[in-house]
Design goal:
Helices cover about 70% and strands about 0% of the residues. The chain is mostly helical.
């Protein structure tokens, strides 16, 4: 008798697939590592990267404007890829036993046996060293600030065992770049990046609650927690609250940084995108939830465009 949790029809949609560029183009020995780092699924990298780019652009705009430093933007892009991979590796090392019991995650490299835990740990070390090399390119204050985020990266995977609010800890972790980007430009922190950080936390609470509804049946069976389970049928009301506060804090961040009007125009368009998410989400349709979750890249890019145009003006 197997202890595998059978995947229900409602949770069958997944962003895990083995017909991606990794499987077509990457050398076979590297494929398990690339899947472990989720390089075939870039949405997580986008969601980690966008707060960094917002912050770099906002800090640039507050100093008088112009294009954000392309070198800084590129460094943050590389750092996001590497640290998202490190975070996914930590998560899979912590959750491999759970993943083996859930149909959606059984084929991941660790639970499927395609990659050993020892090799995953070595891979994690290489990712962290690469991330440290990227971080070392920043000023001293930013380096220290970046190092401070490692504690969050380490504890997040375990939160679902103890609290119905792991999405809150993810928000703390994934939006650290809202602080780090400003620090990399200006060498200190201020009110504006703090407000942007809080906005990002509320944004994450919204989008990751939507994402968690894909796995709620399996989560109940294996005994892990999420905001999706906590909110249940009241999820839409909570999404309105979270996304509303995200927009309000982004508005406050723009005012604190004294940015020009295009930022607020972009924010208005981005807010309409969130309204669309809330109005069309179906928490009992996994494919719908996954599509709404992925659309948050578009929200982030709209916000970024508004900041950049404001800086140019």
């Amino acid at each position: 008798m197997t202890d595998t949790v059978k995947n229900t029809g409602k949770s069958s949609a997944s962003d895990i697939t083995y017909e991606t560029w990794v499987d077509r183009l990457a050398p076979r020995p590297l494929q398990p590592y690339l899947h472990l780092a989720r390089l075939d699924r870039p949405i997580g990298t986008w969601l980690l990267l966008l707060p960094c780019w917002w912050s770099v652009a906002l800090a640039t705009s507050s100093l008088g404007g112009g294009w954000p430093d392309p070198v800084l933007m590129a460094l943050f892009a590389v750092g996001a890829v590497v640290m998202r991979g490190a975070g996914c590796t930590v998560n899979d090392l912590a959750d491999h036993k759970f993943d083996a019991r859930v149909a959606r995650t059984q084929t991941r490299p660790l639970p499927s046996g395609r990659l050993s835990r020892a090799r995953a740990v070595i891979f994690l070390g290489l990712l962290l060293l690469t991330g440290l090399g990227v971080l070392a390119q920043f000023n001293t204050f930013a380096v220290v600030l970046g190092m401070a985020s490692l504690g969050l990266v380490a504890v997040y995977p375990f939160m679902k065992r103890f609290t119905y609010w792991p999405q809150l800890v993810l928000g703390f972790t994934f939006n650290w770049g809202a602080l780090l980007g400003w620090a990399a430009v200006q060498g200190h922190l201020a009110l504006a990046p703090g407000l942007l950080y809080v906005a990002g936390i509320f944004w994450t609470l919204g989008y990751d609650t939507i994402y968690a509804h894909q796995d709620k049946e399996d989560d109940i069976l294996i005994g892990v927690k999420s905001t999706a389970l906590k909110f249940g049928d009241a999820t839409v009301s909570w999404l309105i609250l979270f996304y509303g506060f995200a927009v309000l804090f982004m508005l406050a961040a723009g005012l604190a940084a004294d940015v020009a009007w295009p930022y607020y125009a972009g924010l208005a368009l981005a807010a309409l995108h969130l309204v669309w998410q809330v109005a069309t989400v179906d928490i009992d349709d996994a494919k719908n939830c996954l599509a709404r979750f992925k659309s948050n890249r578009d929200f982030g890019l709209i916000v970024l465009a508004g900041i950049v145009v404001a800086g140019l003006i």
